[in-house]
Write a structure and sequence with these properties.
Blueprint: E1 13-14, H1 15-23, H2 25-32, H3 42-58, E2 72-81, E3 86-96, E4 99-106, H4 114-131, E5 137-142, E6 147-152, H5 155-174
Helix pairs in contact: 1-2, 1-4, 1-5, 4-5
């Protein structure tokens, strides 16, 4: 008699879905359930350009600014896990004698937000799965201010990330349109705004 699979296949999601879902669930809905044509916004194109410039600068810098004693940097690391049902391309992975640390670049002003934390935690979980070693913290690099924010991978953050992944899968499988974000200012530059009939 065949044994049950201890890790049944999960609907594969992208790490970026965590960020988008927390920002506004409808972004993920339109991408998976009702794919529609979207146009690149100025913010999207500017972010890509800024990250490319940062790649060049970061290659010349040391890892001491991350508070690490040593380490090698690997840019644009592709990570995937069928167990987690998650995949994504990490901006930077620092491999140090003290462990491996994910770094996510953000072209954003203001403080680190909750959607950034979920995305970084998703990457941390993928790094743990790939290298079979705990990831105690990661870093968010805020490009406009050239500042680095350490983020502890707490049990609470991990739990929130897992719950978010479950909710995304439930939304996709049920094909139910989620409520729009309560932060109306986010709709102003959204590439999907024209498809939300209840958002003005």
């Amino acid at each position: 008699m065949p044994r049950p699979n201890p890790h049944p296949a999960k609907l594969m999601l992208r790490v970026n879905d965590l960020k988008q879902y927390e920002y506004c669930p409808r972004v993920v809905y339109y991408q998976y359930v009702m794919p529609v044509e979207r146009k690149a916004t100025f913010k999207m194109e500017h972010g890509k350009s800024a990250e490319a410039r940062l790649d060049m600068l970061e290659q010349r810098r040391g890892v001491q600014r991350y508070g690490l004693p040593d380490g090698e940097r690997r840019f644009h690391v592709w990570l995937s896990s069928s167990v987690l049902g998650l995949s994504g391309k990490l901006d930077l992975l620092i491999e140090s004698s003290t462990g491996r640390y994910p770094v996510d670049f953000k072209e954003t002003t203001g403080p680190v937000r909750s959607n950034h934390l979920l995305q970084l935690c998703g990457y941390a979980m993928l790094v743990e799965e790939a290298y079979h070693h705990p990831v105690p913290r990661g870093f968010i690099y805020l490009i406009p201010t050239n500042s680095i924010e350490p983020v502890e991978m707490t049990d609470e953050l991990r739990a929130k990330t897992v719950v978010a992944l479950d909710r995304i899968r439930e939304m996709i499988l049920s094909q139910r349109v989620p409520a729009a974000t309560e932060v109306s200012s986010r709709c102003t530059d959204c590439e999907y705004r024209n498809y939300c009939g209840d958002v003005f």
